[in-house]
Amino acid sequence: MQIYWTKINKIIQETPEIRTYLLERPEDFTWVEGSHTHFALEGFNAGDKPNRSLIRHMSISTLPHENAIGITTRIREQCSEFKAILRNLGVGDEVAIFKTHSNVPLNREDKNVYLLSSGVGLATFRPLVLDYLERPDHINQIHSLNIDSSKNFLFTDIFKSAPDKKFTAQFADNRKDYYEEVKKLAADKDGLFYIVGSDEFLLQNIEVLRERGIKPEQMMLDKHEQQLPNFLSFE
């Protein structure tokens, strides 16, 4: 397993609670849209066993051509040891990344694509939308629906409707409005539904979609293959 130690080049305060850390891209480090990585802090591998409290699974919110590895995360006032350390890191400090993988690359199957996300889950979808806007081949259209009760919506420079590019972006600030919209989207019985958020959020969305006849193979989750049956087995 290769561990890449890399520097923080820039920190963007996206909203009062959300930051994007732009990391220097090592020469041989590459990834695809929808990738996540193991993001670790100094000392995580100092002992006999990795210190798991210093490691987190994080989505990469950038594409390789942006020449930076973007890690977007919410840091609340009351937070974990990991987030507390991260909050105090600055430009020039080192972090580690390893075991990078994509569970949700963009499927180009001449279908409509629906991106369903909660809060900072939108960071996973930012590269998918960028990839689509640059190369819309074999995708009919993309519709993004995000719920964030804070109303501090993320990446509004990218997540804005562009009818000429067949891209629509929608934000909801409460669950009732959000799930009403999901029900409407599920009228497309042939669409592909990507879902990113907490496990509870995934299960609620799956239930709504399933009740409306959307099949498991139409749902893309940011989960390893062996975890999918925990969410998508409909017996």
**% residues in beta strands:** 25-35%
Number of domains: 2
Strand order of the largest sheet: 4-3-6-1-2-5
Order of helices and strands: EEEEEHEEHEEHEHEH
> What's the total helix number?
5
The helix/strand class is: alpha/beta
Strand count, sense and barrel status of the largest sheet are:
6 strands, antiparallel
CATH superfamily placement of the largest domain:
Nucleotide-binding domain of ferredoxin-NADP reductase (FNR) module
Estimate percent helicity.
Answer: 10-25%
Q: What is the averaged pLDDT score? A: 94
The CATH topology assignment of the largest domain is Rossmann fold
Notable traits:
235 residues; Elongation Factor Tu (Ef-tu), domain 3; Rossmann fold; 2 domains; 6-stranded antiparallel sheet; 5-stranded parallel sheet; 11 strands
Provide a descriptive summary of the structure in words.
The chain is an alpha/beta fold and 235 residues long. The protein folds into 2 domains: 99 residues, Beta Barrel (Elongation Factor Tu (Ef-tu), domain 3), CATH 2.40.30.10; 122 residues, Nucleotide-binding domain of ferredoxin-NADP reductase (FNR) module (Rossmann fold, 3-Layer(aba) Sandwich), CATH 3.40.50.80. Helices cover 20% and strands 31% of the residues. The strands form 2 sheets. It has a 6-stranded antiparallel beta sheet, with no helix packed on it. A 5-stranded parallel beta sheet has the order 9-8-7-10-11, sandwiched between helices. The radius of gyration is 18 Å and the shape is globular. It comes from Marinicrinis lubricantis. This is Dihydropteridine reductase.
